[in-house]
Amino acid sequence: MPNAEGRKVALITGVCGQDGSYLTELLLEKGYIVHGLKRRSSSFNHPRLEHILDKDYPNSKNFILHYADMVDSTSLTNLLKVTQPDEIYNLAAQSHVKVSFELPEYTAAASGMGALNLLEAVRGAGLADKTRIYQASTSEMFGKVHEVPQSETTPFHPRSPYGVAKVYAFWIFVNYRESYNMFCCNGILFNHESPRRGETFVTRKITMAAARIKLGLQDCVSLGNLDAKRDWGHAKDYVEAMWRILQQDKADDFVVATGITTTVRAFCEWSFNRAGLPLRWEGEGVNERGIVASGEHEGKVVVKVSERFFRPAEVELLLGDPAKAKAVLGWHPEQLTSVEKLCEEMVDADMELAKLEIMNVEMKKKLKVPY
């Protein structure tokens, strides 16, 4: 139910991330009061939200940040008692697949048990009958895929600690929906990117490298499996699907995807071409190289393959079937941002960031500021 002002109240965990920033914008535009959960950090950890926190941003007064943590159930319960949300979007996770092999216990705690902590906090705050809850599930749960494309009925076979943790979170949401009649939903989102994507994720790593190499700030980029195939969409489009999932009459689970698969190699080619560095490939396996095919940098090796970036258990192909989301949610990916346009948008944004970096370096030189 809306609050006394007639506005719906939403709580977003993981609000500092890519999806959290886009979802905050969407909900504020729809008139929500939005509360965001952020973890305490000794470093600045919400640059994606600075424009929203600015007093001149539309409805910025309706966006409030709070400290809490998914592995601290008491902090979650207290936050829910204060905010009394109509809707919760659980986007919090340790979401880097490669890192999950290095931090398996923390990944399980944050991405798996964190979902259980949130559900118990909802019950503990007396909101089980009021609050609708969205869980950010992931295509990584399919892992070693049992069928192509993957739909809501495809069996899970995760290939990373991150994927395993997310499978637990998925099923605990289903269990609480069936056990306590709570409005718990899973959005099984396939890969979604944007200029706000973290710099360690492969798409952003590629677009940043293309821009920086073009402007002389970087020599080369090292990647892992160039032939891995992913279903990539735009994060701004995908948060619309999240919102639609919680507006349904019945709690349910949905695959959110484009239905189109693209290789890392192709994304790399589009990115470097957009930056004015068309590629050709030489060699095989870990000896393969991406070389600038023409222009002032012709012959320069700009892409290398490194075993360091291969996963212990590789996921070769992810391709989602969005038929249910189309039919039930009215969400039509074919009408939204194409992966080529997404790639261009990311490269263009990273070109601007690289130019700013150059300007900052030059300014420091003029002012004789130590680096």
From TrEMBL:
Q: Which cofactor does it need?
A: NADP(+)
Under SUPFAM superfamilies, the record lists: NAD(P)-binding Rossmann-fold domains
- Signal peptide: which range, if any? none
> What range(s) does the NAD(P)-binding domain occupy?
11-346
Q: Name one GO biological process term.
A: 'de novo' GDP-L-fucose biosynthetic process
Keyword annotations for this protein, in alphabetical order, are:
Coiled coil, Lyase
Task: Tell me its EC number(s), please.
Answer: 4.2.1.47
Gene3D superfamilies in alphabetical order = NAD(P)-binding Rossmann-like Domain (3.40.50.720), UDP-galactose 4-epimerase, domain 1 (3.90.25.10)
Instruction: Quote one Gene Ontology molecular function term.
Output: GDP-mannose 4,6-dehydratase activity
**What positions belong to coiled-coil segments?**
339-366
Family that this chain belongs to = Belongs to the NAD(P)-dependent epimerase/dehydratase family. GDP-mannose 4,6-dehydratase subfamily.
> NCBIfam families per the record?
gmd
Which named protein is this? GDP-mannose 4,6-dehydratase
Q: What is the organism field in this record? A: Tetradesmus obliquus (Green alga)
